[in-house]
Structures are given as C-alpha cells and as structure tokens.
Amino acid sequence: MNKSGLDLKNARRKKQIEVMKKIIADGICPFCHDFSDKIKPAYHSNPILAETDHWVASRNAWPYEKTKEHLILVIKRHILIPEEMTNEEALDFWKIIKEVKEKLSIKHSTLLMRSDSTGKTGATVQHLHAQLIVSGGEGPIITAIG
User: Fold this and answer.
1) Cα(130)–Cα(74) distance, rounded to whole angstroms?
2) pLDDT value for 115
3) What do you get for the CA distance between the two ends of the chain, in Å?
4) What band does 146 get if pLDDT is binned at 50, 70 and 90?
5) What distance in Å separates the CA atoms of residue 45 and residue 36, rounded to the nearest whole number?
6) Is the pLDDT of residue 142 over 90?
7) Short-list 89, 95, 100, 97, CA closest to 128
8) Distance CA 124, CA 19 (A)
9) How many CB atoms are closer than 10 A to CB 123?
10) Are 62 and 101 in contact (CB under 8 A)?
C-alpha cells in the first residue's frame, strides 16, 4: 500500500484514477487533508453538507451509478476500523447521519461502512468512512464489497 493509503484497483472512473494518482504523488491522506486539516488545494470538490465534532458529510465525488444521493461520512481522526472509535465518535456518527438525512429529506437509504484493508473491502481510501446511499429508482446499485 502506498503512503496515501489509496487503492487504484478499486477506482470506478478515469478521472477518479487521475485524482488518486495526484494524491499518491503528494503522499497525503485525502480525507485528512480535505476534511480534517481543510488544506487547499482540495482533492474533493464537493462542499461539506454537515459537520459535527468528529465527522464530516459530503456528496461523494465519484457516486455509484443509479443513485439519487451518494454521501460520504468521514471521521476526522485518521483511524482504520470502527473499533478504534471513541464512544463520543460513535455517538457523533449517528448524529451526523440524522442531521444529513433531515437536511436532504432522506427517508430510505443504505448505509455502508468499509474499514481497514482496501483489498478486502473494495474501498479506495484507507481511512474509516461510511457511505449513505439513496437509490435513484432505476434498478439495483452495483458496488464491490471486497
């Protein structure tokens, strides 16, 4: 795994791979850089929709096909697995989900959390994050789960 913790094999789009190669060359974690440290230039172009003490929510820059909404929920502290969360971070996770669902009037959704090894989970970024997905009603949403 490269210093940035990115896995190009799991990327879904050509532009995504280009951005990921830049991040790898820069040698940083994109989630820490953009969501925790908030340093520019940002690699994630979508604005923050909601923020709590421990989490940030934004629309995914590379949404799955057939989604009405595809949000990423990123923990601010760089950890790899949910078991590393403090009690406050875990409670705050549910707080940001509630906040973003209310803000966007989301009633039906799928919650997906990938952790640790990108090779085993299908993730592109090795930094604990979750995805809140709303179907666009145009058939099944296909994603790799490891």
Assistant:
1) 7
2) 73
3) 16
4) low
5) 15
6) no
7) 89
8) 12
9) 25
10) no
Q: Which amino acid is at 43?
A: Y
Q: CB neighbours of 137 closer than 8 A, spacing ≥ 6?
A: 68
The span from the CA of 42 to the CA of 112, in Å, is 24
One-letter identity of residue 88: E
CB 133 within 8 A of CB 110: yes
Question: pTM of the predicted model, to two decimals?
Answer: 0.81
Q: Which CATH number fits domain 8-135: 3.30.428.10, 3.40.50.920, 3.20.20.150, 2.70.70.10?
A: 3.30.428.10
SS (H, E, C) the chain: CCCCCECHHHCCCHHHHHHHHHHHHHCCCHHHHHHHCCCCCCCCCCCEEEECCCEEEEECCCCCCCEEEEEEEEECCCCCCHHHCCHHHHHHHHHHHHHHHHHCCCCCCEEEEECCCHHHHCCCECCCEEEEEEECCCCCCCCCCC
